[in-house]
């Protein structure tokens, strides 16, 4: 596209004649107010805006949303959103009422309740105590409420943590690759570099590969600052780290002077039983900054997440603070505080479930596990081993979570995804945008979280036809 049509559009249909003939001496008069209509400022060249805006990474999610809207009848394996059958609008009031009752029980006056709900609030949040109690019940984590910051989704937590930890351009963030785009995107917004550490086939990042990447970065004059990792049922790969690898990872990170940023939105959703302690639960050195999200375990509309940052920070004169306090200082300049209403609703949900979200999520866990089973069973049915080998097709078998990855014998890009949506009524997510240093072109992500069993059965049937036709 040339610049001219774009400019015409941006000028809201200002006449080409007026522009071509030079400035119009008598600007048109606005009919309603009588104020003269002035020409809008010239379109801003994207090159004059922050570099991240020209990065295709930022379009990956928008593209998916657009395609989903264009093919509303397709079976969509694309979104990682929770199943809506678990939500009833009345629950919002019930949760809120439970939180208000809790405040009253704690002896808050009506005026104090009014302030808590309607006013600006403490930057670290108003339900830190309830979240700390929930973490103790669900994860065996003994963290003081002061080390928590409630954020607008885990996404804000990522931004704050990256901003705080990386002092300057020499600092780099190690990320397991493939990696959640939320964190690579946040790094891009902040102008920070990421160094990908390849994940093993099923088990997340190899600790020795983390050590090698840290040494390499240091040899190149950079300071490897932290490792971002999703140890449980990662997005996008579905990979989970075995416990010995978790312990080894913490040792390696300590030896390399790396903090670990653990992101754990999917940990409850196990398909295969087994102990999967969080890195934070294994953390004996306070080296893990823990990102939590209520998006999948409560509901994403609340946009509520949190950071556990119990590390000490040494200030001038040896004054010590908590990293959580430093994050709160940053937050005071971004969202000021997380909406009290969201916190009140989620707080009520925690209270109504005795601060035991894992137990409250048992039906969801069973639902997602059954969906993942259905996906794996149907893939197996359509592509038995010999057929799989002949086609050069494969997939992983995640122990839980929302996602599995299919490796196909063709380029699984956006164009292929559209062909699949148009001709076969099935949507999925190309994996390539999840690889910070390239790769994954023949991989696609399948999410089972928002579908029912019959939809998955029908979706895999359509996908199987597509894969066979593309592989010809
Ligand atoms: C790896 C990962 N982290 C965090 C989140 C949730 O972020 P938020 O709490 O901002 O919705 C997601 C959701 O898709 C995710 O996949």
Automatic annotation (TrEMBL):
Q: Where is this region: Disordered?
A: 1-34
Where the record annotates domain Aminotransferase class I/classII large, the positions are 114-456
The GO annotation for biological process reads:
alpha-amino acid metabolic process
Keyword Transferase recorded: yes
Query: Which terms in the Gene Ontology molecular function aspect does this entry carry?
Result: pyridoxal phosphate binding; transaminase activity
Q: Which cofactor does it need?
A: pyridoxal 5'-phosphate
Q: Sorted alphabetically, which InterPro entries does this protein's record hold?
A: Aminotransferase_I/II_large, Class-I_PLP-dep_aminotransf, PyrdxlP-dep_Trfase, PyrdxlP-dep_Trfase_major, PyrdxlP-dep_Trfase_small
Sorted alphabetically, which keywords does the UniProt record give? Aminotransferase, Pyridoxal phosphate, Transferase
Which protein, by its recorded name, is this?
2-aminoadipate aminotransferase
